[in-house]
Every structure is written in structure tokens, then in C-alpha cells.
């Protein structure tokens, strides 16, 4: 039987940049629903406002660069950047903080390097780190979760007005995150720390653990849709869990937290499935993705426990974005028909 001689590329389905970005946005829904239920409607207002600013910024840069605006806006890449940054920000961040972050992500972290496909660092994480370093007060005012002592239901209208400074939410409705509390603890056993702080839940923090489960479900959905492979997220989660297990001392005052605490606190699952898997800024070889993800997981634990910041997803991913080309260089697969180099 004669074989057809067909050259690459070989299409395996209706995959396109637009389809991939739409799937990513769709997969964030379970996590966003959990964040909204436990922390109020601030996350939704952040997403709407950030998306509007992202589209305007993207269109302005495309206009300046003399690129077809409608063609590039339809790929949804700017909206994905806005959604991921908005999820990472505190739910009731001021409007100007959200706007500043999105403009920096689109203009500086994306278009300054040539647009989508050319940026060496994840734009959303670049903007997040810039905001965290420049505006630490605004970036650490997280709302009290449902079930904690400081929680108060905030309606969508109040949330919207608060984001724009018309109805400011008082400080009593905000509190430190479980990662902050764990990092600052130096005297209480973990069991006592859990009993004395109402924001701790079953595994990690109230709201946080359910949000991480939501983003985990979204990540599994993306895996089943073959948006990315399992290598980066699973290796990151496995290494973070391993590091936490190795250094967990059973719950003393010097403990950094259990493996479950680290896996379901902060932005662990969001980072593993939605940010570390960015095809532009991550490693591309199979072995490279495993090394890349494992290094992110190790860095997350190191910075959380021994560094200056309670959550380290953004810093860890940016550091490994920088190292991704180096990893790919030393993990290239052997070319078919050739042996390994000695």
C-alpha cells in the first residue's frame, strides 16, 4: 500500500489561538465562582474593569504599531491577561490599581517585546509583581472570607462603587491571608494557630481552599481539552508537596505548614494550571517542562517559608521564565536517526 507523502504542519483539530484563549477563560469559572462566594463580588468587578482596560490598551498599541486592530483583538490574549491579573489582585482593589496593572501588562510586558509570542515573561505576573513591590498596602488588603469573624456580605453595586472609591470598605472587613498568618507566626503551635484564627478552614484558608479546588477543576478541564500537557503543572504541584512534606515538622511554631496547606493556599492551582503553562514563556521540551515545573514548585516553597513574601507564585514563575530557554537548551530530545551526543 502506498503511503501519502504529506509534509507538516499536520492539523489535529480546530485548534487556534482564539479557541485556546476561550478555553482558558472558560476554565477559570469554577475558581472565580468560589472567590465570589467566599470574598464577595470584588473579583467580578475587577475582571470586568480589567478586561475593558486591556482591550483599550491592546487596541491603542496595535494602532501605534500599525497592526490590524480587529484581527488581533479577536485572539482574546489581552482579555486572558486581564482575567488572570484580576483574579490575582485583592477583590476590592482600587480602580486605579487594576488599571495601572493591566496597562503595564499590555504595554510594557507584552507589546514592548513585540506582542504575543515574543514576550519572555508572563505579562500578568510582571504586572502583579510591579504592583506588589510598588503598592504593598493596596496589594495586601484582602477581604475577610465567608465564615470568618470579619466577613460582611457586600452587594455587587457596593463592590463596584468601592472599587471606584465611592463607598470605601473599612479596614475591619479586611484581614491577613492564611499564608501571611503562617509566615508571621513564631509562638503558636499549628493546632493553636488554627483554633485562634477564624479564616483557617479544613485544609488551608476558608475560601482559599475552595478557590484552589475550583482552579484545579478548571485545570483538569484544560488537560482533557489538550490545551497543554500535564508535565508542567503536575511536576510543580508534586515538587511543592514534596518540599512541604520533607520540611514539615508536625506542627511546631516554626513550621512552614503542611503539604495540604501549601497546595490549597494562595494562588497555587491558579499558578500551576493557568500561568506556569503559558506556552510563550515556559519550557517547550517534555523533559524541560518537568524540570521547569519542578523548579517553580521548589521556589514557591522556598520563598513562602524562608523568603520575604508570603505567596511566591509570581516571583517563582518569572524567575523560571528567565531560565526557560536555558532549560530547553539542555533538554532537547535526540533528533530522529541520530544517537545521543557524547
UniProtKB/TrEMBL annotation:
Where FMN phosphoryl threonine occurs, residue numbers? 177
Task: Please give the GO cellular component terms listed in this UniProt entry.
Answer: plasma membrane
Topology with regard to the membrane? Multi-pass membrane protein
Known cofactor(s): FMN
Query: What's its EC?
Result: 7.-.-.-
GO BP terms: electron transport chain; transmembrane transport
> Which EC class is the enzyme in?
translocase
- Which residue ranges run through the membrane? 24-57, 69-89, 95-113, 125-144, 207-223, 230-248, 260-277, 289-306, 312-331
Major localization class: membrane
Keyword Signal attached: no
* Keyword Translocase among UniProt keywords: yes
Q: Which Pfam family, just one, is annotated for this protein?
A: NQR2_RnfD_RnfE
Secretion signal: which residues?
none
Where is it localised? Cell inner membrane
Keywords carried by this UniProt record: Cell inner membrane, Cell membrane, Electron transport, Flavoprotein, FMN, Membrane, Phosphoprotein, Translocase, Transmembrane, Transmembrane helix, Transport
Q: Which NCBIfam families match?
A: PRK00816.1, rnfD
The role this protein plays is: Part of a membrane-bound complex that couples electron transfer with translocation of ions across the membrane.
The record's HAMAP family line, in alphabetical order, gives: RsxD_RnfD
Quaternary structure and partners: The complex is composed of six subunits: RnfA, RnfB, RnfC, RnfD, RnfE and RnfG.
Question: Which family does the record assign?
Answer: Belongs to the NqrB/RnfD family.
Q: This protein is called what?
A: Ion-translocating oxidoreductase complex subunit D
List the source organism: BD1-7 clade bacterium
Its gene name is rsxD
Amino acid at each position: 500500500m502506498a503511503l501519502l507523502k504529506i509534509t507538516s504542519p499536520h492539523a489535529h483539530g480546530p485548534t487556534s489561538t482564539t479557541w485556546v484563549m476561550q478555553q482558558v477563560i472558560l476554565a477559570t469559572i469554577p475558581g472565580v465562582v468560589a472567590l465570589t462566594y467566599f470574598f464577595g463580588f470584588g473579583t467580578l468587578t475587577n475582571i470586568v474593569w480589567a478586561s475593558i482596560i486591556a482591550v483599550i490598551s491592546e487596541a491603542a498599541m496595535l494602532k501605534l504599531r500599525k497592526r490590524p486592530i480587529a484581527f488581533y483583538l479577536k485572539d482574546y490574549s489581552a482579555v486572558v491577561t486581564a482575567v488572570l491579573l484580576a483574579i490575582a489582585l485583592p477583590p476590592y482593589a482600587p480602580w486605579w490599581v487594576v488599571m495601572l496593572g493591566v496597562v503595564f501588562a499590555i504595554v510594557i510586558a507584552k507589546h514592548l517585546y513585540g506582542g504575543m509570542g515574543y514576550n519572555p515573561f508572563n505579562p500578568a505576573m510582571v504586572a502583579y509583581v510591579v504592583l506588589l513591590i510598588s503598592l504593598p498596602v493596596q496589594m495586601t488588603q484582602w477581604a475577610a472570607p465567608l465564615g470568618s469573624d470579619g466577613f460582611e456580605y457586600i452587594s455587587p453595586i457596593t463592590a463596584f462603587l468601592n472599587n471606584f472609591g465611592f463607598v470605601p470598605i473599612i479596614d475591619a472587613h479586611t484581614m491577613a491571608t492564611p499564608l501571611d498568618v503562617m509566615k508571621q507566626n513564631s509562638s503558636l503551635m499549628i493546632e493553636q494557630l488554627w483554633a485562634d484564627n477564624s479564616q483557617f478552614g479544613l485544609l488551608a484558608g476558608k475560601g482559599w481552599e475552595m478557590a484552589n479546588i475550583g482552579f484545579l477543576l478548571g485545570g483538569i478541564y484544560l488537560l482533557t481539552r489538550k490545551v497543554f500537557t500535564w508535565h508542567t503543572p503536575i511536576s510543580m504541584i508534586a515538587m511543592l508537596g514534596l518540599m512541604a512534606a520533607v520540611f514539615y515538622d508536625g506542627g511546631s511554631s516554626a513550621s512552614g505548614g503542611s503539604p495540604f496547606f501549601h497546595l490549597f493556599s494562595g494562588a497555587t492551582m491558579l499558578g500551576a494550571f493557568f500561568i506556569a503553562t503559558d506556552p510563550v514563556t515556559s519550557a517547550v521540551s517534555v523533559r524541560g517542562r518537568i524540570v521547569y515545573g519542578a523548579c517553580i514548585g521548589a521556589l514557591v516553597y522556598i520563598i513562602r517559608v524562608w523568603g520575604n513574601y508570603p505567596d511566591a507564585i509570581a516571583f517563582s514563575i518569572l524567575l523560571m521564565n528567565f531560565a526557560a530557554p536555558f532549560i530547553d537548551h539542555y533538554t532537547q530530545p535526540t533528533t530522529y536517526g541520530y544517537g545521543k551526543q557524547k
